[in-house]
Amino acid sequence: MLPSYKSIETNYEVGAIWSSEDLIAPFSFPVYKDEKEYEQEKQEVMKNIAIVFDRTGGESIYKDSLENFFVSLQNILSKASALEKNKEGFINSENIDQYKEALALKLSYPEWEKLYQIYKNETGSNEGITLDEFISVITKEISDVSKNDIINFNKSKIVSKKITVKKDNDKVQEVIDADNVFDKNEIVNLLKVKLSESINDSLLISAGTKMMDYFVRENLIYNDELTNIETQSRIEQIARTIGIVKENERIISKHDPVNRFTKMKLDSYKKIRLERIGVQDLLLQQIGKLSSVIILMLVLTLFLYYIRPDVYKDNNKLIIISSLILIERFFSYFSMKLDVAAPIELLIFVPVASILLTIIFDSRLAFYTVTIICFIVAAIRGGDYAIAFVSFCGSVLAIFSERDIKNRSQIFRSFFFILIGYTLSILAINLVRIEDSQKLWMKLLFGGINAIMSPVIAYGLLIFYERVFKITTDLTLLELSDFNHPLLKELSSKAPGTFHHSIIMGNLSEAAAESIRANQILARVGCYYHDIGKLSKPQYFIENQLDQNNKHNDLNPSMSTKIIISHVKDGIELAKKHKLPEKIINFIPMHHGTTLVSYFYDKAKNVSKEEISDHIYRYPGPKPQTKETGIVMLADAIEASTRTIEDPSPQKLESKIRDVIRNRFMEGELDECDLTLKDLTKIKESFLKILLGIHHHRIKYPDKNQLELVSGVREKSA
């Protein structure tokens, strides 16, 4: 999509300042006129061209055929008279119809009736015209107009008001005014007016007009071939150049403004240099274009590889980034291909990419990728620094506006930030180039359109990417954190203990994730749904047993273990049924990993005298694969274990948290996630801070009897 060549290393629009070194002509070349100016001159020549007509015969063209027509007309009327005498009728006679069909000119039946009446001199009116008089009038009028030049061309389309006439077998041509010739429509209208002066009957006028229209012939015939030759000849006479630049002559100096004539010299240099490019130069040019793209993509690849390896290793995420880059490239490419007298380069919606990358990934990756996109846009537009600068300003402000987005409607608040970015950058560029106010207002208008359309396009594409690539954005997670979600509402009503446990876990996990810079929203929402499998048998879990009747008292340890472990499988099925994202479903099996259901395992060992394998007493896994699932595993165990502490103190809480984390670490449950020892220390501190707030000591207020006793003692003392 990059342009086929790049003739000069800077923008040289009229009004711009030449920022490169002095440009010296390496060879002599003519200065071509501006293409628009040349096209205007061509149009002017084409408007003033006297189109060519061939002159053909005059009166002899129609005279004989007109006389023959009137003879045939009189014969038909004579036969009609004979038929009428025999009372065979006139109008409906098939014999007469055959004669009428033989005539080339077609008349209506009322017109035939009127001609038949004047043939018999039975007009029934005051004009008293006979057929001979009618024929005489028609013949005279046609004879009169035959002395004029008549063209077979619509006269209104002759813009130059002149025509060229070429005689038969004669190379001599003469130019005459178009006002001295007539076209067919003008002649017919003129004849109709003259006929009206001699005849008052509308039917006779209509019939006579048809006769004159049929028998009047054009004697000037349009010659398309000679006209095109004449036009081409005149166009070739237009000068294409307005000067010459000699070898070693300075074309433009550094810091000089680009004026109209300088731009023509630069355009001419560009044109001539392109014509001189050989096969070797074209090959080198292609290598240069390929190198430019590779360098830009390599820079982005290195960033992802070293800074965001999680994205680099995920093909779906790479496809999302690549597709956004390609979309912006297509916008840039079409902005170059569309020949429109408007700043459509401002409709390259780079802010769309910045909004989507910020929401789907994060602001850091979005900033880096958008910077690369702006360079690509500039490259495709032939090194257009201005559009890269404007796009960068609008896109970066859009990134800032979407950093802490809480709901989808907040996407549209980026409109104001994009508008500010585009407006200020366009004004800055305008001050540098000193463009006229009309261009400035047009650019500001298109920048405003970009600001309006970018959030709208981003909103639609976000839904597309979420559905097609099954990605879970922070927006999706925030929507799932709403307690009005059907699963959470059902959990709060059927398993209130589990629901309360999940809420406290969410607070613990969110604080811990924030301390190690993990995704705190994902950790919190994962807690809300990690135990939804308990909805199938909520009464078998201790936190939901409101009375002292424990259902596991009537079951053997292995059966109890199966019921407890089954909540993982039930939870996964329920999550898939409600179409929860894969990221959330992973919390359901991973928060237990492959840990042992120790209570029932110990109970089974005490009951049975034989050695028992712990295989059936372990959760199926897998172990936590991410920092967030690792945090939730620890939060689950710590929240449950600290509830059993009597008279919890900071020392007891810290000791319990340390023991749980150490046990999970020693059991190898944290081996497959990315939590480091430093992370575990921070997680312990975060958990302790939250639990101290939950289990803080309260002042023990005395009861009513104690208050009365104290009051009595005080009275006696007084």
Estimate nothing, just give the exact number of structural domains.
3
Number of strands: 10
CATH level-4 homologous superfamily of the largest domain: Hypothetical protein af1432
CATH topology of the largest domain: Hypothetical protein af1432
Text of the CATH class of the largest domain: Mainly Alpha
CATH architecture verdict of the largest domain: Orthogonal Bundle
Beta-sheet strand percentage? 5-15%
For the biggest sheet, the summary is: 4 strands, mixed
Uncertain segments: none
Helical content class? 55-70%
The overall average pLDDT, rounded, is 83
Plain-language structure description:
With 718 residues, the protein is mainly alpha-helical. The protein folds into three domains: 53-230, no CATH class; 314-471, Arp2/3 complex 21 kDa subunit ARPC3 (Orthogonal Bundle); 477-691, Hypothetical protein af1432, CATH 1.10.3210. The protein has 29 helices and ten strands. The chain has helices spanning 35-48, 63-85, 94-102, 109-119, 131-145, 184-198, 202-215, 224-236, 260-276, 279-306, 309-312, 315-337, 350-360, 363-380, 385-401, 414-433, 437-469, 474-480, 486-494, 496-515, 520-529, 557-577, 582-585, 587-590, 598-607, 627-642, 650-666, 677-694, 704-717, and strands at 23-24, 29-32, 51-55, 149-151, 162-167, 173-177, 181-183, 220-222, 241-245, 250-252. The strands form four sheets. The protein has a four-stranded mixed sheet. Strands 1-10 form a two-stranded antiparallel ribbon. Strand 5 and strand 6 (173-177) form a beta hairpin. Helix 14 (363-380) runs antiparallel to helix 15 (385-401) and helix 19 (486-494) crosses helix 20 (496-515). The protein is elongated and about 140 Å long. The N and C termini lie far apart (100 Å). The relative contact order is 0.06.
